[in-house]
Design brief:
single chain; about 70 residues; 3-stranded antiparallel β-sheet; two-stranded antiparallel sheet
Length: about 70
């Protein structure tokens, strides 16, 4: 998860919508796994530790692991 100035928590949502239920949260700088992306390309489905949900793509730097 990207470090964004002024952001202390990145919320995970049940659906790829800003008004969806918040189901988890992660800290900027955390490392997780990309599970999918919505059709608009604006939301990622991610897993961090035992949490998974949708979050805006803006908060992430994605790197491939081989």
């Amino acid at each position: 998860a990207r470090q964004v100035e002024g952001v202390r928590t990145i919320y995970l949502f049940a659906q790829p919508k800003p008004k969806a239920e918040k189901i988890g949260e992660i800290l900027p700088g955390a490392r997780g796994q990309l599970l999918g992306q919505d059709g608009s390309g604006e939301w990622l489905y991610v897993r961090f530790d035992n949490q998974q949900g949708w979050a805006p793509v803006y908060f992430f730097d994605i790197t491939a692991v081989q």
